[in-house]
Amino acid sequence: MKQTMAWQADIGLEVHVQLRTRSKMFCGCPNKFGAEPNTHICPVCLGYPGALPVANAAAVRLTAMAGMLIDSEIKLYSKFDRKNYFYPDTSKNYQISQYDEPLCLGGHLDIVVSGESRRIGITRIHLEEDVAKNTHFDTNSGVDFNRAGTPLMEIVTEPDLHTPEETLAFLQALKQVLQYGAISDCNLEQGNIRCDINCSVRQIGATQLGTKIEIKNMNTFRGVFRALQHEIPRQIREIERGGTIVQETRRWDDAAGRTESMRGKEDAHDYRYFPEPDIPPVLLMERDVAQWRSELPELPAARRARFVEAYALPEYDAGVLIADKEVADYFESTVKAGAPAKAASNWIMTELLARVSEAGDSITTLRVTPASLAALLQLVEKKTINGTTAKEVLVVLLAEGGDPAAIVQQRGLAQVSDSGALEGFVSQVIAAHEKSVRDYQAGKQPAFEFLVGQIMRLSRGKANPQLARELLKKHLG
Q1: Do both 384 and 432 map to the same domain?
Q2: pLDDT tens per residue, range 284-293
Q3: pLDDT per residue over 383-399, tens digit each?
């Protein structure tokens, strides 16, 4: 019986991230998604003869700050180069990028998979311009140059990832850090973050990496995960049956669930890199780098620890809240507006995030503002309304917005805490459910809970539950 060899995959990523700038990388055209095709264009981003590019200072700053967030060395000297190739998405037949003198070198990002922490090395971060977007129809293709020239940061990792799970964790952690730093929106649907995968396999214990396969143009994290689930076993099967892995570029067919060969892999010399003659080198001052470093935000891990310490939240709650910066900001704003921290956490996680997920939207677009959620939770805290009524008010807030106190008053939803009024409900329930009364008096506790439920139903959910229970016990002896 043939013994199966043990294999290890080595995975590196080239993550392309569009930067959050107002204008493009080398011209003044708006850096904005969703416009009509070919409306945000000019002679510079189209590469017309005589049009001279000028580097976007904001893009340089954001790239340097991204490097600081992952502990890269920020180079005071860097330069732009021409990467030459012919393709419909580059009208000038070259892309302005950085080659041998990038803006950021080295660095790392820590990930957690199955409870274990791993450090993933970063090789470099370089700054370049995005290319146009090709759209293929049944009988023809179109090119939209609105995207051409968008500031694009490429983060290249070491081949330190070994499984699809680790790769997914890395991408999620990187997205989180970049969003916290306001470097990029990282909106996958808008193509703000995409990546190429470099993947090889080798026998466990072997010191030399296997032949690398590149999988191009991955635009979803789920696609990256599935592509690696397919590609790693494919390479192993090929070697085990006596074949060889040839260095090539492959594409991911999501519908078929497999990678397919596209072309032989290009090397650096194929692009004929040379220094960009129209753009001077980027020279940074120490004081500017120091200023940018002072502007760095609190990172997700630090914020999670602070949520546990400052707000006495469980680790789980803190992890859910900080996973999205907008959600974490919303939570803190709600607490600052007067909401109890644990109650705010519970309502955001159980009530609001579910609706955000259903709508595929952001928590910032909800009609329920942090101030209105805090006001609603204060009404519960003061026992003006109970939890059931609060959820009813929340439905109104989600649909119409407004002031929770006003909604409670207008709709007569205030909790009944008057003993006299509740006495009437209790008497009616006891009279209508004599069998349940006898069951309770015989020691059957569920009968008591049933009677409490009937009081709540009779009061249309407005009875103070604690007072109702006390009065019912008093009447039942």
Answers
A1: no
A2: 999 999 999 9
A3: 888 888 889 899 999 98
